[in-house]
Design goal:
Number of helices: 9
Strand content: 35-45%
Radius of gyration: 25 Å
Structural class: alpha+beta
Order of helices and strands: HEEEHHEEEHEHHEEEHEHEEEHEEE
Helix content: 10-25%
Largest sheet: 6 strands, antiparallel
Distance between the termini: 57 Å
Strand order of the largest sheet: 3-2-1-4-5-6
Number of strands: 17
């Protein structure tokens, strides 16, 4: 954890930087501990444990910006390194848009604990962690003659963060994270070796769903046996909740301040305009207690707040940090999102599929890209062909192509099944008139 001595060290480093030529400064402390057990075919393949302490000092010097980091929290060394790095910063190009946020925007404290840290972290027996990884592997290994390889992993992480700035911010946060991952590879009658994975995660060890992770991975892998292409054409498409974020990622990249400032966004100049289907309402909900991604301040110390990003298809906000706001002469918002949530529908993935006359359930993406400036995309997919609401056979080696704005305007249903173990809580999604290329 971040001790009082370490906090005193951070305050000393901040004051020392100001005394040696900085007009502004920010100091961050990070303390992290992680552990992982990796298993393949019931044999322990890798054990990794790590612990890290890091001090980062940001320098704002004569309209220039520099940064220095070290894991050696020693005053005598810092007394040499900090002035040396301040002088080095003076050789950089001037960029007066690099400033700290206005102090009125900082988180001031006083809100309830977000309950992101498992107090029992140090008490968990390593043998129990290893056993969880082995059990996940045992749910796959030897369960079917077609299994080629069964791999699993247990992982955990605990981190503490502390930050202060020369214009009045002080804040700290702590969190933990636990996960179980499984991957199964199976053999087809042909040379194909389809594989699939599944994972579960939680902030608290007691909440980790460790049973059935391997079974789910194996089930998904076996369901891919006999994959083939279908004819090129326009089809309905349901994307499951494990993969729907793949389609959200280009949208979030397009509203990031970096893309806006570099004029490399297909959503430039579209603020307050209807650009998506009216079913598309996306929010940032940063203050959900006990939820992965929750926080009271962003990486600049700016207070987070619930906000709509898209409201019934209308683009409500860009993600603009202080630097990009200065560059663009715009009002800053927040550097990044915390917990993305969509307004949900009433149907599960299975119910969405049951309403398809002729289409494809997408359960995986295999490469591809999206043009950041135009929104044009091409992605490899795998999944299942659907006729009259029934999965008929697995498909692969097919692409979907189109434009992101066009795709999201073809959204016809939003599912009710977001996964709670990630910070992007995107449910299964149903689109119409999607271009698939196959044979």
């Amino acid at each position: 954890m971040i001790t009082k001595d370490n906090k005193d060290m951070a305050q000393w480093a901040l004051d020392f930087a100001l005394r040696n030529g900085c007009q502004q400064s920010r100091v961050k402390l990070y303390n992290g501990t992680s552990c992982s057990f990796e298993v393949r075919d019931m044999q322990m393949e890798r054990l990794q444990q790590a612990s890290e302490n890091l001090l980062v000092v940001n320098f704002y010097v004569d309209g220039r910006f520099g940064s220095f980091s070290t894991n050696r929290l020693d005053k005598r060394e810092l007394e040499q390194y900090i002035p040396m790095n301040i002088e080095a910063t003076r050789f950089l190009a001037e960029d007066k848009d690099r400033t700290l946020p206005d102090e009125s925007r900082y988180y001031k404290g006083g809100k309830p604990d977000l309950q992101l840290l498992d107090a029992s972290f140090d008490k968990i027996n390593p043998e129990d962690k290893k056993e969880l990884a082995l059990k996940a592997c045992a749910e796959m290994y030897g369960k079917d003659a077609r299994v080629v390889s069964a791999a699993s992993a247990y992982g955990d992480e605990r981190e503490y963060k502390y930050m202060i700035t020369s214009n009045g911010f002080e804040g700290e946060s702590s969190s933990s994270y636990f996960s179980i991952y499984a991957n199964a590879s199976v053999k087809d009658q042909s040379e194909a070796r389809p594989e699939s994975c599944w994972f579960e995660s939680s902030l608290l060890y007691k909440d980790l769903k460790s049973v059935g992770v391997g079974e789910k991975a194996l089930e998904r892998a076996l369901s891919k046996l006999g994959q083939r292409k279908i004819s090129t054409g326009k089809y309905e498409m349901v994307v499951d909740n494990l993969n729907a974020s793949q389609l959200m990622s280009p949208v979030m990249d397009a509203i990031d301040g970096v893309a806006i400032q570099q004029k490399n966004s297909f959503l430039m100049n579209r603020l307050n305009e209807p650009v998506m289907n009216s079913l598309f309402t996306l929010r940032d909900e940063p203050h959900k207690v006990g939820a992965y991604g929750a926080r009271y301040f962003d990486e600049e110390g700016v207070a987070t707040q619930p906000r709509k990003i898209f409201d019934k298809g209308v683009l409500d906000t860009f993600l603009i940090d202080t630097y990009r706001a200065n560059k663009l002469n715009m009002s800053p918002t927040v550097a990044s999102t915390s917990i993305l949530t969509m307004d949900l529908g009433v149907k599960s993935k299975e119910q969405l599929v049951s309403g398809i006359r002729r289409g494809i359930l997408v359960t995986g993406f295999n490469g591809g890209n999206c043009n950041a400036a135009t929104g044009d995309f091409s992605y490899g997919i795998e999944g299942f062909f659907v006729e009259n609401g029934q999965l008929t056979h697995p498909v692969s080696e097919m692409n979907i192509t189109g434009n992101m704005i066009g795709l999201w305007n073809n959204l016809v249903e939003v599912g009710n099944d977001p996964r709670g173990c990630t910070s992007w809580r995107i449910p299964s999604l149903h689109f119409e008139d999607v271009d698939f290329s196959g044979i």
